[in-house]
Amino acid sequence: MTATRPVALMKAFIVDRYGRGGSTLRAGEMPEPEVREHDVLVQIHAAGVNALDSKIRDGEFKLILPYRPPFILGNDVAGVVTRVGAGVRKFQPGDEVYARPDKDRIGTFAELISVNENDLALKPKKLTMEEAASVPLVGLTAWQALVETADVRAGQKVFIHAGSGGVGTFAIQLAKHLGATVATTTSAANIDLVTRLGADVVIDYRQDDFETALHDYDVVLGSLDKKTLEKSLRVLKPGGKLISISGPPDPAFAKQLGKPWTLGPVMRVLSHRIRKAAERRQVSYSFLFMRANGNQLREITALIDAAIITPVVDRIFPFEQTNEALAHVDTGRAKGKVVVRVKETS
Predict the structure, then answer these.
(1) What's the pLDDT tens digit per position in 263-289?
(2) pTM summary value
(3) Are 39 and 105 within 8 A, CB to CB?
(4) In which domain of life is the source organism classified (predicted)?
């Protein structure tokens, strides 16, 4: 009779059930992840904390993303490779890496995670583990919005909402690198920060109305509510592009998920108003739900190592305070990114 091999366990922060209004994660143990042929097992040193984590925890994506409780939360990772699958060619044990895991394989609020090698990149040499963990999700969001979707060119005008936030602080620097004139909104307390990052036009959203101050912009990167999104259409010139990372999702997103027939009609209805309003103003609207991409992350690494982009980290929490880190993100007052330190670096 063969003895059953005990399942190796790791510490993690777990969603047991979806809940609204800042429900907490359970600190517990989960089985160590499986390492498939093209997977890399990463010992997690630090994990970025994002508004996306709160939305997943609260059930906002439960109809479109395949997470069945109990599952481990977390979408940003920096750490060290401990093991590789038989088919892995790009990494080896000991490599310092970072990633935004694929949307189907999240779980960075833990001691270990298994990531497909195509979603992974070597960590920027200039950064600590905590700084590196702050980058992947916001960096890829900014890259896919400004480079891939908008194709921003030198001399264009780009308006980035919420410039002192995680995506905003990264997107301002990337847009400036691409040669754009950059406008952003922030509070008076953060004007110096966004100006230092490269913003040319800064609007204090508590004092001034961006739609009267800005005109003839080529691109708007939106991250706020529907009302703000609709007002953003008015600052674009004909042919301009409104790209939203906060929704509403459009039919193209259903296609990206591989569910054009089941979710397409729903997303067509959800985005009907903003798409029609954009059409009337001769501009385009698109929803961006960023995806894992190791090649793009390597491009971002090069910009960081060349000191063209510098991550902005607001606070670093110890692993046992992951719920407190999420609560801090939920306040909406973080400057740049919030990070959890999972493992002390010797």
Answers:
(1) 889 899 999 999 999 999 999 999 999
(2) 0.96
(3) no
(4) Bacteria
